[in-house]
Amino acid sequence: MAVETTRWGVLYCPKAGIANKQKRWQKIETALKAHDIVYDMVQSETSDSVGRLMTMLISNGYKTIIVVGGDSALNDAVNCLMKEGKQMRDEIALGVIPNGVMNDFARFWSFDEDRIDQTVSWLAARRVRRIDLGCIRYTNKNGEKCHRYFLNCLNIGMTADIMNLRRQTRRLFGSRTLSFISSLFVMLFHRMEYKMKLRINSDTIDRKVMTVCIGSGPGYGQTPNAVPYNGMLDVSVVYHPEVVQLIEGLWLLITGRFLNHRSVHPFRTKVVFVDEAKRALFGIDGRLMKTPVGPFRVDIEQEVINFMIPD
């Protein structure tokens, strides 16, 4: 039976590597009660269960669904929501309480993992904005046509490998800063390049490339000017720099000036055609995905999700 429209469905995705998962939830629960939020909570046990629980919340009629999780959990929730028809999607508002290994999309909107009460108060105001989603359309190893949406970015090449390493080191160090620094240190000794052929607007790039970031959002600092509401994708193509230039590039990335590096070539477009990306890893919203087989395209779908933003 459908629930009342004012009741929230809260999907709690405990942070990996945290021993006392309930302590974190108790803090969130206290904030929800303090703001008189009526809600039902379901908890995911694994990353594979996020989609199933999201489907359950949608089918039970929740019109406000809050994901307590990070970028990957949000990605799973959005892809589940996009399976619904437009009429159903238009009735649902999606929100986030950051609680992941990486919370870059939440951070873009100024949601702070440590300021739970402020986050809940913003969500309670229910200010909603229609946002864009990027989409990779590809063929899998079985010859099936597939697609996957992303809120933040798609990485091709070395950064996908580094994002995966960053997730692992975050579990080890328990600190976003330490995990980022350690990942960058490893990057200095893990320089790789991949033969790629890309078509972006009227440009064709056919050469060895270190990494490509296609962002509907900030792209973990690699597409810092991208916003998820202008109907465009920002693309950063990074050629293989020398060691000194690489160190300079890491500093510019940390300080938010990544596009100033001489090896970074930025573009803005509605679609990217990837005709070749030999042996490159792929990361979508911070999680490795199965490598597409053969050529694929990345495009943008404009204003398809209702997302709750700060008041």
Give a written overview of the molecule.
This protein has helices spanning 21-34, 49-59, 71-81, 86-90, 104-108, 116-124, 158-173, 176-188, 243-254, and strands spanning 8-12, 39-43, 64-69, 93-98, 127-139, 145-150, 153-157, 194-200, 203-209, 211-215, 233-238, 264-269, 271-277, 282-284, 287-289, 296-309. With 311 residues, it is an alpha+beta fold. The strands form 2 sheets. Strands 1, 2, 3, 4, 5, 6, 8, 9, 13 and 16 form a 10-stranded mixed sheet that branches. Strand 14 (282-284) and strand 15 form a beta hairpin. Helix 2 (49-59) packs across helix 3 (71-81). The chain is elongated.
What proportion strand? Answer: 25-35%
What is the averaged pLDDT score? 86
Q: If you compute it from the alpha carbons, what radius of gyration comes out, rounded to the nearest whole angstrom?
A: 19 Å
Helix content: 25-40%
Question: Could you give the count of β-strands?
Answer: 16
- Helix count equals 9
Task: Give the N-terminus to C-terminus distance in angstroms.
Answer: 32 Å
Structural class: alpha+beta
* Biggest sheet details: 10 strands, mixed
The succession of helices and strands, N to C, reads: EHEHEHHEHHEEEHHEEEEHEEEEE
Quick one: overall form? elongated
- Runs with pLDDT <50, length 5+? none
